[in-house]
Structure formats: C-alpha cells, structure tokens
Design a protein that fits this description.
The complex is a heterodimer. By secondary structure, chain A is mostly helical. Chain A contains 13 helices and four strands. Chain A has one domain. In chain A, helix 2 packs across helix 8, helix 2 packs across helix 12 and helix 8 packs across helix 10. Chain B is an alpha/beta fold. Chain B is built from 13 helices and 13 strands. In chain B, helix 3 packs parallel to helix 11, helix 8 packs across helix 9 and helix 10 packs antiparallel against helix 13. The chains are: A mainly alpha, B alpha/beta. Chain B: It holds the Pfam family Peripla_BP_4. Chain B: It is found in: Cell envelope. Chain B: Keywords: Signal. Chain B: Belongs to the bacterial solute-binding protein 2 family.
Chain lengths: ~350, ~375
C-alpha cells in the first residue's frame, strides 16, 4: 500500500519536474529562436575573422560590409512591413529602375542637357512612392493578391525604363549626387549614414506608430484585426506606399554609387531583399518579425558575400554555399511551434 | 459575377465579331498579294534580337534602322525577351505574314534555336544570317542558298587581347584580379580562357583571384570592394569580361579614391568604358561593333535576295567566320569618339566580307 502511494507520488514528482524542465526548455528555445539570426551572424563573423583577420579591419567593415549593405538594408526596410503583413512586394526591381532613371535623367548627365540637381532625387522619391501607392491601390482596390499585383508593376517599371532608356546607360555627372557615394562623414561613406537614417525611421514607424502595430495585427490575423476596428485597407495601402518610398531612397543610392542608370541596375535586388528579410527571422506567413531582424538578415547576407571573396572561395561553389547558408539560417530561426501549416 | 458577365458579353459582341472576321478576311486576301508583287517590290527587313533593354542589342537595332533608312526600306525588329519559344514563333509568324518575302538577321536566343529558324527560312525562301549561337553540326552550306552566313566573334582572342593590354598598363609585373561573366555562359568561358592563356605568357604577372560578377555592374562593384580589403595595394589591375562589370569595378575604385591608379579593362565598347579609356581609367576595351552587326546582316540578306551575289558560290570562310573586333585604347580613343560615339559611323554596307577574320573552330 505504502509502496504504491510512493510510486504514484514519485511519478507525480517526475511529471512535475519534466513539466518544469520542458517549460524552461521551451522558454530557452523561444529566447534562442529569437536571437538565432543574431547568433548566426555573430558566428559567421567570428569564423570569417578567424580565417582571415582582415575581415575585422576597419576598412573591410566600412567598405566591404557597411557600404555594400546600405542599399539592401534600405530595400529590406520597406519589404519587412509588407512581409510582416503577410503580403509580398515583387515590384522592387521595376520601381528601383524607374527611380534611378529619373535621378539620372534630371541631374547633369550625358543623355540630355537637364541639370535640375536635387529636384531629380526628390522627383524620383515621389515617383517611387507613387508606384508603391499604385501597388497598394491595385492590391486592395481590385482585390488582386499582392503577389500578382506587384509582379505586374515590376514589369511595368522595367517597361517604362526600357521605353525611355532604350537599353542605353545614362551616366550621372552631377558631382553633388555622385558625392553621396564619395562624401565621408567620420570616415564613413554618406550611403551608410543614409541607410542608418532609413533604419531608424523604419524602427520608429514600427515601434511608435499606430500604423506599425496595425501591420502586426493584420499579419497575425486579418479577420480579427478587421473586427477589432483596424483600418485594414488603409494600412495595406500605406505599407505598400512606404515600401515604394524606401525603394526611392535606394534608387538614389544605386544611381549615385554606380554613376549611371540603366534597366539592369536592379537585377538581383529582389531575391537579395527577400532573402535578407527571411534570414533575419521575419516569418513569410506574416505577424512576426521586425526591422531589427531585417538589419541582422541583411548583414548576414552581405557578410556572406563579402566572406566568399575574402576567403577566395571558388565562384563555382558560391551559389551552393549561399543556398546552404540560407537554409541553415532559416532553419535555426524559424519558430516551428508557432506554425501549424508549412506551405 | 458582374465582372465575368461583361467580359463574356464583350467577347461575343456581334459588331466586334463582324469587324474581326472582316479584318481576318482582308488579311487572308492581302497575304496573297506579296507573292504576286514579289519580283519587283523589295523584301521586308527583319531583325530578331534578345531585348531592347541591354545596350548591346539597343545599338544593334540602331545600326539595323540606319541601314534600312539608307536603303529606303521597311524594317521590323522582333524581340525574344530571352524566350526561345517566342523568338521562333515570332519569326514563323513574320514569314507567314510576308509570305516569305523578307530577309532575316537573327541573334538566336539559344544554341538549339538556330536550327528551326534556319529550316523555316530555307523552306520559305528567306535569306538568313545568324550570329553567336548555332549547333556545331548546323552549317550554312547545308541550306544553300538561303542560309547565307553564321558569324561570331572570337572571345578567346578578345579575352587574351585585353589581358595583354592590361599587363602592359601594369608595367609587365604584379598581381591582378579578374571578374568573369555567368560561369556557364560560352562567351564568359572563352574570354576567361583567353585571359588565362595571356597570363601563361607573362610569368611576372599573377592572378590574385577570379570571381564571377554575372555580367552585372553592381555585383562587380561589391566584389571589387571586398577585394580591395583582401588584397589592398597588391592589386595592380582589374580584368573584366565585359564593360558593364568593368565600370562597376571602376566605380568601386573611385569610391575609395583609386580610379585612374589601377587600370581596368573590359569588352563591349560601351560608352562609359570608351569615356573611361579617354580619362585614362580604362586601359582598353574591345567592341564587336553591334551597329555594324545590325546593318551588315540585313545587307547580306538584301543583296542575296536581289541576286547581287550567290551565297552558295561563296567560299566556306565567308559562310562561317569570326568577325574582327574594334579595339579601343588611348591611342585611338579620340578618333573613335569622334567617328563612332558623337556621330553615327559611316559604314560601306556593300562591303560584305571586309571583317572576316578567322574560321570558327569547334572544340
């Protein structure tokens, strides 16, 4: 009799300990999951630093990493809000192309005699924002999935570029605009400061505005958000407009950095941006993530590309290594418990 | 629902249906006319290229338009947009529309595309010139007289030439880095092979690293930035498989205040590269002269169609050859800008074979 009681009690005790242990481990997992992208980035940096000490040289951190991360970071800021909302923006390359073209054609260039200086970037910013707004209006107004609406606008943007530029490259000769790529403040190129400002702006919008909270509410469950009085349509349109705005800033940097605009200026940007956001740990299903994650994700992708060159890895295996790193980074950061269906 | 309904109504609208059938009928009728008028009316000039959004094919079209204007003939440009299916079916549609009364200058989107295009042309009696891509066992002389020529440019010798120029600019000694195009691309493979061959001949030169910029300016910019930290002052020169990547590398140098100190070379002869040669930032570039390509292919077709020469009587070297390139260095850049960049070049389109350089070899 006594023995049986003690067995039961022991079982209970064991169960209790297990429950506590599993609670602790799930807490640990949660924490770990949250910081996994940062750990991946840290480990990657450490590994590269060990294999090639020049990775940590100031010159590499500024020119090899920060300067190269500037444009992808700005692009991923806009994309983050849209992905948190559970949508996607595929129009980045088309919009970027239009923006860069406007910058190049309005400032002093080798194709026409305009020199409107800073009006070019301003107009480019407006045009890109307007294209983002159009994305939102088409998506919400015509009830077309964001995937298709933005895919359409991607080609519209490239089409506009092809019609106007006709395949030629327009060179930016305005020294002030080129200066964005050359001017240094505290030894750090202007492009990096602009990217930092864009990041802070995005962080402010995410953390301190009603819009920022609405985006999470929509991504977490649009029907509930709607019932709770969240202006879903307006928030969606605003998010796409904001993405257009960030793409506009990136287009200015791209044309300043390369000193030209052509229709292929944005090739490969879409893949890099979405990869950066996802590697950072923002869920493609929506409702979870942050622009801080995207900062980490962008740095991971850029450090990886930089590291391949620093280590002299054969270009024949680059793509494979990059693909494996992406899978590894996402595998570590994805919150498996939170997702019921993996599509 | 209402949406679908209107669409459906639009589709069967009687007036539209009648108008459509009338147009179709007229089309069928007019299709017969060119056959009757074939002997005296000149053929339609047709160009088929990849896209109008890359500088190379954009200039190609300018050259083709200039030739057509000079001849006073109508010219149509078809664009594949990188889609072989589209490219082939557009050409077939054009052959059907003109009833074979046309000449074709085509840059096939992909190697296998050349065969169906050439077969369709030969069947319809269309004179055709192909560039860059064709299967090794497809030969112009097997489709006499309609398949006039297949023309390429020797990437190996261009890659070697710019490498030699780079080594000269480096003073014959030191390390350099090389940016290639898409790894599996045949132009990229050939140019790299040429560069490596030139490297072998210059034992004092070392290749520090080779990376692929996938033909993109931005990629080359990023790679060069990373190289500058990895190798620093050890880099004495940059070899790029095309000018777009070369200018990307140059901008990376410029952002670190090194433009003009480290020579860059590229291939294509795009405007930015030519101006960089003038500024002393590029050591040289090589152009296949797409303006000439756009016009000369049509000129060959037109002259053959007009019976001015018989392709089947031409030597094999004229039927399949590597054409010579235009080399641009500091020695001739001023003249080049004056005659080729500031104004449209004056080309004698009747001189069909003056750029035959060497036979094409198949590995």
């Amino acid at each position: 009799m006594d023995a049986r009681v003690s067995v039961v009690e022991t079982t209970k005790e064991i169960a209790g300990t297990e429950a506590r242990a599993s609670a602790r481990s799930s807490f640990l997992k949660k924490r770990l999951g949250r910081f996994a992208p940062l750990l991946v980035l840290g480990a990657l940096c450490l590994l590269l630093g060990l294999l090639n000490p020049s990775f940590f040289s100031l010159r590499n951190l500024i020119w090899g990493v920060a300067n190269q991360a500037a444009i992808p970071l700005i692009l991923s800021m806009g994309a983050t809000f849209i992905i948190i909302m559970g949508s996607i923006d595929l129009s980045i390359e088309g919009v970027l192309c239009v923006g860069a073209m406007i910058v190049a054609l309005l400032c002093t260039n080798d194709a026409n005699s305009h020199h409107f200086g800073w009006w070019g970037p301003l107009l480019a910013l407006l045009a890109c924002t307007a294209l983002g707004l159009l994305n939102g209006l088409v998506h919400v107004g015509l009830r077309i999935p964001s995937f298709m609406a933005t895919l359409g606008l991607w080609f519209v943007g490239l089409g506009i570029g092809t019609v106007i530029l006709g395949g030629t490259a327009v060179r930016v000769l305005d020294p002030h605009i080129r200066g964005i790529a050359f001017t240094r403040i505290l030894d750090v190129p202007m492009a990096v400061w602009i990217a930092i400002a864009a990041f802070l702006l995005a962080l402010l919008i995410e953390r301190c505005t009603r819009f920022g909270r609405y985006v999470f509410a929509i991504g977490g469950g649009e029907d509930i958000a709607k019932l709770s009085g969240v202006p879903v349509a307006r928030t969606r349109i605003l998010a796409f407009t904001l993405a257009g705005f960030f793409t506009g800033i990136a287009s200015l940097l791209a044309s300043a950095q390369l000193g030209q605009a052509n229709t292929t200026i944005a090739d490969g940007r879409l893949f890099m941006t979405i990869t950066a956001v996802v590697v950072g740990g923002t869920a493609l299903t929506g409702g979870y993530g942050s622009v801080v994650n995207s900062l980490v994700g962008t740095l991971t992708v850029v450090v990886l590309a930089n590291g391949m060159v620093l280590l002299g890895i054969s270009p024949y295996v680059h793509e494979t290594v990059q693909g494996l790193m992406i899978i590894a980074a996402v595998a570590l950061s994805v919150r498996r418990g939170a997702q019921l269906v993996i599509k | 629902m209402a949406y679908d309904h209107t669409l459906f109504r639009a589709a069967v609208d009687r007036r539209r249906f009648l108008a459509g059938s009338a147009a179709l009928g007229a089309g069928v009728l007019t299709m017969g006319i060119p056959r009757l008028a074939r002997a005296d009316s000149p053929p339609l000039l047709v160009t088929s290229i990849r896209s109008l959004s890359n500088p190379y094919h954009a200039v190609w079209k300018v050259g083709a338009d200039a030739f057509a204007k000079q001849m006073g003939l109508e010219h149509v440009t078809l664009v594949t947009e990188g889609n072989s299916e589209k490219g082939i079916s557009d050409i077939n549609a054009m052959i059907a529309k003109t009833n074979g009364h046309m000449v074709l200058n085509v840059d096939p989107n992909n190697t296998p595309d050349a065969r169906p295009i050439v077969e369709a042309c030969a069947k319809a009696g269309v004179f055709v010139v192909t560039w860059w891509n064709k299967p090794a066992d497809l030969h112009p002389w097997d489709f006499n007289p309609h398949y006039i020529s297949h023309i390429e440019f020797d990437g190996t010798s261009s890659g070697a030439y710019i490498a030699e120029e780079l080594f000269k600019a480096m003073g014959g000694t030191g390390g350099f880095v090389a940016i290639g195009g898409i790894i599996s691309d045949s132009a990229s493979i050939d140019r790299r092979r040429g560069m490596l061959a030139a490297l072998k001949k210059n034992p004092k030169i070392t290749l520090l690293d080779w990376q692929t910029g996938e033909w993109q300016s931005q990629k080359a910019f990023d790679i060069t930035s990373s190289w500058l930290t990895r190798f620093g002052p050890k880099i004495k020169g940059i070899w790029a498989a095309n000018d777009d990547m070369g200018t990307g590398a140059l901008e990376a140098l410029r952002s670190q205040g090194l433009a003009g100190q480290i020579p860059v070379v590229g291939i294509d002869g795009i405007k930015a590269a030519v101006e960089a040669v003038k500024a002393g930032e590029f050591a040289c570039t090589v152009s296949s002269d797409p303006y000439w390509q756009g016009g000369i292919g049509l000129s060959m077709g037109l002259e053959a169609a007009q019976g001015k020469f018989d392709p089947s009587k031409e030597p094999k070297l004229h039927r399949e050859f590597n054409a010579s390139t235009v080399k641009i260095t500091s020695a001739n850049v001023d003249a080049y800008i004056k005659t080729q960049v500031d104004t449209h070049p004056q080309i004698d389109w009747t001189n069909l074979w003056d750029r035959v350089a060497s036979p094409i070899t198949y590995s």
